[in-house]
Amino acid sequence: MKDKYLKEIRILLGLYDITRAEIDDIINDYSQMYDDGRERGLTDAEIIDYLGKPQKIVDELSENYQLCDNNKSRHHHRHSNKIIALMPFLCVIVFFILGRYGYYHPGWVVFLLIPVSGIIFGMSGKNKTHMLTALSPFLVTGIYLIIGFVTHIWHPTWLVFLAVPVIAILNSGKTMRPIETITALSPFVAVTVFFILGNFGYWNPGWLVFMLIPMIGILNMKNKARAFWFEMTFIVAIGVYLYCGYALGRWDYGALAFLLPVIYGVLINDFNIDFFKHGLAVKITAIIAIAIYFVGGIFFNSWGYLWLIFLLVPVVAIIVKGPRKNWFVALSPFIATTIFFVLGYFCDLWTISWLAFLLIPIAGILNK
Amino acid sequence: MHGTVGGAIVNSQFKKGVIEMCVLHIVAQKDIYGFAVIEAISKEIDVNENTIYPILRRLTEQGYFDTFTEATGIGAPRKYYTITNQGRLHLDEYESEWRKFSKGVFNLLGGEKHER
Known about the structure:
The complex is a heterodimer. Chain A is 74% helix and 0% strand. By secondary structure, chain A is mostly helical. The two termini of chain A are 28 Å apart. Residues 66-72 and 270-278 of chain A have low confidence and may be disordered. In chain A, helix 2 (20-39) crosses helix 3 (44-51), helix 5 packs antiparallel against helix 7 (113-122) and helix 19 (327-347) runs antiparallel to helix 21 (359-367). Chain B has a three-stranded antiparallel beta sheet with strand order 3-5-4. Chain B has a two-stranded antiparallel ribbon with strand order 1-2. By secondary structure, chain B is α+β, with helices and mostly antiparallel strands. Chain B has five helices and five strands. Chain B has helices spanning 12-29, 34-44, 52-61, 85-108, 111-115; strands at 2-5, 8-11, 32-33, 65-70, 78-83. The A-B interface holds A 26, 28-33, 35-37, 39-40, 49-53, 56-57, 60-61, 63-65, 127, 173-175, 177, 320-321, 323-324 and B 33-36, 38-39, 42, 48-51, 53-55, 57-58, 61, 63, 66, 68-69, 74-79, 82, 84-86.
């Protein structure tokens, strides 16, 4: 009965100008709701009463979503598809023209236009915030390469890659309270400020900016009195650290002051911070990524390439929250960026590693 | 084009608008899956026009809800709806308009006297 019911909805939806992915999504939702009805012991007839008759459902959906064939949108789709299909050829032409004048390198950068145009035209009319998340690895890579080639200041230009997880967090900010968004962003802000201060010779006490991360996190605590005193322990510890360092010349003694917030935190035993309830895996990944990045950087001098670890943050977010059937498409920009950079950085294959970005349109086609 | 609720004839567009507000309100209480929304509304309102899932879908498309999936232990993972900040703002506007409107109607119909 369930199969027949779902099949009927699918057939009726097929009469409208609606993508297969969207039909699959709707059918999947109705399948879940049907199962929920069965779980409550309802009969098939009762479930259908609850969910509605297929024709009614499709009428409602077509009214709300304007699923009806729409000449304008069809024309727009045709137009977009043409541009996407033509882009590889246009890029090859531009690449060879540039090469003719001795600019094979960095002329290969034009091939970035293939995935970029695929995302822009393929997602036009859809959610613009997701488009920005999908485009961010390319925009950032473009900025990184342009600054790198022009100024040869590869370090600390790599900091721009922090923008990838930052954009992903900002775009998911719709579901977060402002304080949660600020908390999630604080590690990236701290890393950026730390390196800026470091470049001016203030590595110490510049690292104190990392104290912003727990201090902002504490603002999420429900018990405001405890939060206040917790904040105070950090402020006192920072004050003592700076005093010991500058007045007494003993930074090591000053560092002991940070035992104060640690002890207070253990004593109140209250880490009931809302922030950790949401997207735990994503937050843990961000913390682990930062730890790996710094440990790797300090001990193995891997600052130049270990930033790739930060791509894990949006990757985990997609795996945890995104629909499984769309994983490959959603992950493809990050996989492509990783392959592109690893081949270029470690094997000096920049001239061909851009091919990795073809993975994105391929993933899109395979998904359809 | 018209449905009946509590004996009174109610325009279906009007009813749809009210149900939309109820859907927003229910999702604002806690993250919830589709069937549970239908169930919660059906307990209080006669919903025989299967408008709820299309409303959930439209509100998601409009950015008022976000979705995530969670394993159920049995069968496929469930899709949960969670309200966004934009959705909360929309709900606040809706509720304040609704209160003003229903108070006006209540007064017009004779207030407490009519209620008795």
